[in-house]
Structure formats: structure tokens, C-alpha cells
Specification:
By secondary structure, the protein is of the alpha/beta class. It has one domain: Stationary-phase Survival Protein Sure Homolog, Chain: A. It is built from 5 helices and 7 strands; from the N terminus they run αβαβαββββαβα. The strands form 2 sheets. Strands 1-2-3-7-4 form a 5-stranded mixed beta sheet, sandwiched between helices. The chain is globular and about 45 Å long.
């Protein structure tokens, strides 16, 4: 059976663990940040959002990097246990989805501050589709994200992680564009 990370959460909670369901969903630690609009493509965030859909506190965890061949996993390894404990103490088991991004730094004696953030726009400037052929001669398609500096508010995930702090963004399902909703309401009245 193939499925998305969100499908795996449903399978675990509603089937594999139905007699002793979990009290928390931890998703990740993802290789690469889940910043701004990239969360729309993220299996890591998708799994945590599925936990929220099932009424469970959920945390998506991601380690940012600037060199894909040298991801600083030690940062997340050192900081994640304390971050998770801190967030669970604050959330008190409430159904919530928190998106955590660890900065691309490693200073073992300096715990990067955990900072509440907003999603922001992130770094994605565009997406290309690249047709590929696998070793069996079958065609598949790869998505290539183009990233670059974009204007993000000081309290955005992207800005906070770039400054060496750990970001935590509370996410929810409601994504209605209120300005367009008002314009549609007025135009269709």
C-alpha cells in the first residue's frame, strides 16, 4: 500500500493503534525547511495537519540547510527534545498543529531561542516540472522549486530561522482570503 504521510497518520491512529491511540503526532524531522507557502507541498506538515484533523496535538519538525550535502542534523538532535517538551507544556494536549523549523547552525552550548512566528511567504519564487526517465525506462516527473530572497516580515518563519532562532508557527485549516471573499460577496450580492 502506498500513501501520503497524512494517510500513514490515519492508518496508525484509526487502525494500527486503535486500541491504544497516541496522544501526540510528531512528524519529521524533515530534511529542509518548511517555510511559508512550501507547507502546501510538505508531507511533514501534511501528516501533522492530519493529526490535527483527528483531534490530536501535532508537531511538524524540519531542519533547514544551506548545503544539501552537509545538513546540520545536530541542531535538531540537540534542540528537539526541549522544544517538544516546551510546546507540550504550553498546548496542554489541545488539538493544535505546530510547524517547527530549526536553523542551519550548530552551537551545542547555545540553545537557539524558540520564537513564535507567522507563516509568511517563504522563499519559493517558482516551480518547474522536469520530465525524467527511471532506470527501467519509465517516465516520471520531478518538481524543482526555485528559491530566493523574498520579502518576509520580521516575525515570519523564514526571517526568524535565518536569524538563528527556532521558529514555531501555529497552523490551522482556514485559509480563506478575506479580501477576495468580501469582493465576491459584494459582486455577487
Amino acid at each position: 500500500m502506498l500513501g501520503t504521510p497524512g494517510d500513514c497518520v490515519v492508518m496508525a491512529v484509526r487502525h494500527l493503534m486503535q486500541d491504544a491511540p497516541p496522544t501526540l503526532v510528531l512528524s519529521g524531522i524533515n530534511r529542509g525547511g518548511n517555510l511559508g507557502v512550501e507547507t502546501m507541498f510538505s508531507g511533514t506538515v501534511g501528516a501533522a495537519m492530519t493529526g490535527l484533523l483527528l483531534g490530536l496535538p501535532s508537531i511538524a519538525l524540519s531542519q533547514t540547510f544551506s548545503d544539501r550535502d552537509n545538513v546540520r542534523w545536530d541542531t535538531a538532535h540537540e534542540l528537539a527534545p526541549g522544544v517538544i517538551r516546551s510546546l507540550l507544556a504550553i498546548a496542554h494536549g489541545a488539538p493544535t498543529c505546530l510547524n517547527v523549523n530549526f536553523p542551519d547552525i550548530y552551537m551545542p552550548l547555545w540553545p537557539a531561542p524558540l520564537t513564535p512566528t507567522r507563516q509568511g511567504v517563504g522563499l519559493v519564487e517558482g516551480i518547474d516540472v522536469l520530465p525524467q526517465t527511471d532506470p527501467r525506462g519509465l517516465q516520471y516527473y520531478w518538481l524543482r522549486f526555485q528559491r530566493g530572497a523574498r520579502e518576509n516580515a520580521a516575525d515570519s518563519e523564514t526571517a526568524v530561522v535565518a536569524s538563528g532562532r527556532v521558529s514555531v508557527t501555529p497552523l490551522h485549516f482556514e485559509r480563506t482570503d478575506e479580501r477576495m471573499f468580501a469582493a465576491l460577496t459584494a459582486a455577487l450580492a
